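Bit of a strange request maybe. I'm writing a small parser for structure token strings and I need a real example to test against, not something I typed by hand. Could someone generate the tokens for this chain?
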Amino acid sequence: MLRTLAATLFLALPASAGAATHTVAPGESIQDAVNAAQPGDTVLVAPGRYTQSVYIDKPRLTLEGKREGEAWAVLDGELKLNDGIISSGHSTVIKGFHVKGYKGNGIMTQGANNFQILDNRVEGAFYGIFPQFGTNGLVRANVVSGSEDAGIYVGMSDNIELRGNTCFGNVMGFEFENTRNAFAEGNHIYGNTTGIALTIVPGLPIKDAKGIVLKDNKIENNNLENFAPKSSIASQVPSGVGILVVGPDEVSIEGNTMTGHDNTAVFVADLTTFGLATDPRVDPYSDGVHVLRNTFEGNGDKMSGMLGDFLAPTGKSGLEVLVMSKGRGSCLAKSPGVDALGVKRWSECKPSDSVAKVTTVAIEGGAKEPVYTAEQRGRLTYLAVCTGCHAYDSVLHGPSMQAIKALYETNPAGLVAYARAPVKKRKDFPEMPPQAYLGEETLGAIARYILEDLGASPAP
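Reply from user aminoacidic:
Good idea to test on real output. This should exercise your parser:
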């Protein structure tokens, strides 16, 4: 449930008595320092350029880039490497890096609870910052731009907070997907295709999304032409929208400033609007959307694209709120100059609908931190790393997993060796980035998962 607290509380486990700081200088391996560190230690990376990927598989580790004026610790994927930083360790802190030039994820947590991602600059990736399968996390004061999907993408997680981030030049500024009990406050979201997206996607392990608060954010001029790859679901995201709601329930949009959107400030739709596949365990409609105490200016004056085509026969323009959904229990605080369409099912918001007193969704004392088996780490890392390029039964950026399973069916060591140091085999596919940074144990667990457990579903 949403709670009221004076401050955000996160699990603060005591550092071990022998906690140490491991320093890394340009030309040295960050991964080597991470491997040498113990839970509770800090890896401090000096300013400079590092063309590396980093994988954290232990808890309570702080990975920090040291800044000296405008000099950052820069992780540069050179548009060759797939991932900047990936962590599956609980209570990980990742802070102070300039991450750029990665093809997949800039910074990702996978199955990590009580994580913090702070004060980073992330440029250009498919997902800039991507927490997935996590509980009780904080993403604060990051600047994210140039992502082909979402600048900050929170997937299948619980009790996640976004505070004071700046997102611009992305397809979506940030997205909460299949996520529960999420809170976004004080973020500046501008110059994206769509500012903020709240979604539920069928076919994923988590079947609901609810309890989302968007409060006191500045959302402006999100009219960028969609530049997501055509094969991506993000390519369907409409331009000129401040906040897009597709499926989640119990959504509070309160106290935000939304200005300069070509189509509409708030667009509430359902899964059928975008032609998404149905899932019998997913409710496609958003119930309990509350829109109140927001400031609107200059929205809906330059309608274009799908929404412009839809609204043209109505003669409507200048809309702040557009609803194309049959959801129930929603409300709008009506005020002069706030034009809405499709809200006949909606009521007038009451004072009791306000979330003004809600200041956090963090779990007091922190979330539990399960210890993952090697098999679980293999599955989580497969989802974090491999699925960015490989679909199960179709071609994505690389060959299908079915083809890979057939090739290495009796040779897991061969699959590990190839992932560690790939060579170009197929002229129709780009060369795979090396995955040696994941370590032999994790690569072995991934290979076993692919060859022994990965079933006939693209979302196993």
